[in-house]
Amino acid sequence: MDRKTGFRRNATGHVDMIHLDFETRATVPFGRAKGAVTAYQYSRHPETSVWCMCYAFNDGPVLTWTPDQPFPDMLLAALAEGVIFVAHNAGFEWCIWNFLLVPRLGIPPLPFEQMDCTAARAAVMALPRSLGEAGKAMGLAIQKDEEGSKLMQRMAKPRKPRKDEDPTGVYWWDDAERVARLIEYCKTDVESERALDQVLRPLSKDERAAWLLDHKTNFRGVLVDVDFAKKASLVMNVVERRYSDDLHRITDGTVGSVTEVASIKGFLESKGMSITSLDKTHVTHLLDGLDPDSVEAQVLHIRQEAGKSSVAKLARFIGLTSADGRMRENFMHHGANTGRLAGKGAQLQNLPSRGGLKWKDAEKVIDLVKSIGSVGEAEWAADMVELLYGSVPTAISSCLRGCIMAPPGKRLFVADYSNIEGRVAAWLGGEKWKLEAFRAYDTILLDEAGNPLMEDGEEKRAGPDLYKVTAGQILGITPHDVSKSERNVMGKVPELALGFGGGVGAFQSMAKIYGVDMAEYWPTIQRALDDQFIVKAEENWNSFGSKSGIFVDEWQASEAVKLAWRARHPGISRCWWDAEECAVKALRNPGSWYAFAGGKCAFGATQIGSKTFLVSRLPSGRRIYRADARLVPVKKFGRDSFEIRFKTVDAVTKRWIDTSTYGGDLFQSYVQAIACDIMRNGWNNVEEDAFDVVLSVHDEVGAEADASRSLDEFIAGMERLPEWAVGLPVSAAGYVAQRYRKD
Q1: What is the 3-state secondary structure (H, E, C) of 149-209?
Q2: How far apart are CA 577 and CA 462, in angstroms?
Q3: How many angstroms separate the CA atoms of 650 and 359, rounded?
Q4: pTM score, two decimals?
Q5: Which residues does residue 411 pair with via DSSP β-bridges, in sequence order?
Q6: Residues 497, 559: contact at Cβ < 8 Å?
Q7: Would you tell me how many other CB atoms lie within 10 Å of the CB of residue 108?
Q8: In this predicted model, what pLDDT tens digit does every residue of 98-126 receive, in sequence order?
């Protein structure tokens, strides 16, 4: 025991870490509650308070502090010494300390650089993010107190007034018995968190730097045009009322409002329709083949327009924006196993990107809506938007990106990487012809004065767009003669569908996204491709394609393109098989690394706690994990073989499930993870170049900077590569604007 500070030190005389957990209460919703605010907002709300704080030094006993006690000097001494504070979802504890305790108690702030997060570390290791589920996944002896969790959720919000109490007052479950039980729950959380901390790998230096940068960006936030969001909500209220009136009229009063989903379902079923769901996908499917003038089609169309989930983001923009006009905590570190961010709050990762207005028209809609000065003028605005731009929900949805804007004196600098996954795949596969084609496309031709040469309003390049190259190969024409629609249909679809071992099924799924019917192109494909691919496609149809349920022309056209693409990309195709072979070897021989892709990538297997992890080593040195990995005997094509199985968090249900993988999928995870590393590197570069990054969406980075800065400076930072990426052709393009948009 230290005589001066009174806290326990380890064998070397140092306090390595403090495990920390708060239990709080508030009148505002938080967590998974509907309309939940951010931790930043929650901790700054005047009616938020702390029930208790539990903490432990190293492996010492769990201690408790409650607000009726002096704040522990031991914690303040540790803070001053730079001791690391560990928490699960550390951003919450950091907010409570800095935005609630600091102003109310006058204690020193806790630098985020002194924090560590077991939730982030669990996510990096592909484990569930929740404390309880992560503990179960690792088979820990100390588990989260589930019964105590139910009590915590009850005590975190006000209870209803009793008969003898003022109905306007705020009351809590504050009897001594419940408070004591909550403290025990908090202590158990600290013990569970500490047990998890002991089995999790620490964040690498680079991963921790990325985590800190994510936090910095999250709490910098984006500036939101709340005025537009509020006025757009008024316009949408008008539209919703009109749609409800229309529904009431055409259903003879059966449906009274667009929000009455059960009534809409019942009405359609009364017309003989079979309705399993009224979500976006099902409504689109149900409308196919219906007479557009029929009552059923009219009802479904209203449901389709009024039910646009994207417009619901207006309320989230308003509710999540703080008094300074900024919306914070928009992203989650390592939200996907490849290392990419996931969206939080208003879900900026899922803003509409296609099917709406062009950005110039969207900004005109923003100006029109912002011009209204009263609720009554919302009727006029709805009429004007519909008259000039068509569907009001579609128009407003197209404006959502524009809700994010630059502050006065600043501009938004936004750029994304061009076909980054295609470039990484070609780099790993050693497809020299394709790498050279990318470099040629990236080279802008200049005149004698050093100005870009222009052709058809665009900068002239030394080589064609790679999607046009692929389309030209399939269609038997030069890339220059490929039209924009052909580029997407015969270039983009094959490139996106076939790069990771995808077959006809993957091709069909991608084709549907772009509205492509491959049967229409079968005659052209037969003329353009080498006969060997046509003959092989017909043979494969007879062997297994005829059992697919897909029409013969559509299947054979897709199969022929697949065969031709693979023949054109032998290095990438080789990577699929090598990735699976190396993963199998790693699981059979834990402790050894097995490299492929010219040594750029490698698989290993290691024991962490009681579980075996399949580990992917990236060119950057970063690792990605697959938990509880193992080989399961299976039959493949009538032969004895092995299947790689592992545990993962289901992207939709968030449950911890068993799943399997194969070569193409393994290769895809490398490609996406490397693309993530390139994006992280560019993000770090522009941040160091004094651009304040405020968002990152997929392969896109957005930052605020002085209007005097240039786009060229920003893109130069995005394109500046680390040493490990030598030979990878990377190109970024973007814009400078007052509002965020999709070009």
Answers
A1: HHHHHHHCCCECCCCCCCCCCCECCCCHHHHHHHHHHHHHHHHHHHHHHHHCCCCCHHHHH
A2: 34
A3: 35
A4: 0.91
A5: 705
A6: no
A7: 12
A8: 999 999 999 999 999 999 999 999 999 99
